[in-house]
Amino acid sequence: MNCCFPLLRGRHAGEGDDGVHRVKVFSCNELRKATQNFSEANKIGEGGFGSVYRGMLKDGTFVAAKVLSATSRQGIGEFLTELTAISDIKHENLVTLIGCCAEGNHRILVYNYLENNSLQQTLLGSRYSSIQFNWEARVKIAIGVARGLAFLHEEIRPHIIHRDIKASNILLDKDLTPKISDFGLARLLPPNATHVSTRVAGTLGYLAPEYAIRGQVTKKSDIYGYGVLLLEIVCGRCNTNTRLPREDQFLLEKTWALYEEGHLEEVIDADIDDDLDVEEACKFLKIGLLCTQDAMARRPHMSTVFRMLTGHKNVSMEKITKPAMITDFADLKISSKPPGPNETTRSSTSRSFTTTTEMTEPFSSSDTPTQSSM
User: Fold this and answer.
1) Whole-prediction pTM value?
2) pLDDT tens, 198-214?
3) Cα separation of 323 and 53, whole Å?
């Protein structure tokens, strides 16, 4: 049982740190009881490495138990990565890791339970949601995610690159405070390093082109994903929907076209209530375009993004050029060799994007996803 403890590494945070904490080690029996033997009725999500179950501990605390596949080597690797990445940090806009279980071949991560599921399911999903995402709520979510990502990139030591910023990895509590989740693909950035070379992993649509092509992940890779997410929050739709007319399928492409035409307001979600601030919404869209610029150097740091969103830095002075879009590099083959038996080949519409990577497709607005794994 104590095998978890050697993985809990000390970490230093800069100013603004909400504090540090240590995780609890649970027995498998405790978590079986909490989740009613991991019953299907308590399953709230499923990811590439396992399932997530809602449970209640003996003290009445509701939790989300992420059970990693016992037979997957990738699952064990994800367990170690996620545990190492966030075991001893705490922030308002990050999910809180309560504990873990590493008993026998069981690998379970226990998080605080978040009542309002993911942004993917509530704002972007096709199923009915009782949550009203007015403009005030969307601003809160956009700023909260930016704050959490800036904390990972610039305040915590060593810095953390998330590698999979997307709507299904943004969970919402009862007050719609956003929490960045799923650190299974995260990478720690060594001091003085500008990038980490790694096997490409992430979600098509949020994946920065230079990362997909060269396999060098940087903070700017996360910032690209955040830019796409910001567009989704303002527009109320997924970044890719192949059921729409060709010119509307890719949100980033459509937003850029309307920006060039001077009609950026046309892409704003028509379902936003009367509190919509059109000028602020257009500003957020411009920030999204800045975050997805083709040249990495042109993408702002997350602390700068936060200042732009909160009005402490002028966006209008920034020169916005054409963003890097998936349709710009979809014809490139990342690897000349065919995928192996454990590797995945994905495509986007009629164009070929062949890669020996671990990637998942984004949901279209017509899909009905379950909650993402934590």
Assistant:
1) 0.79
2) 455 557 788 888 777 77
3) 39
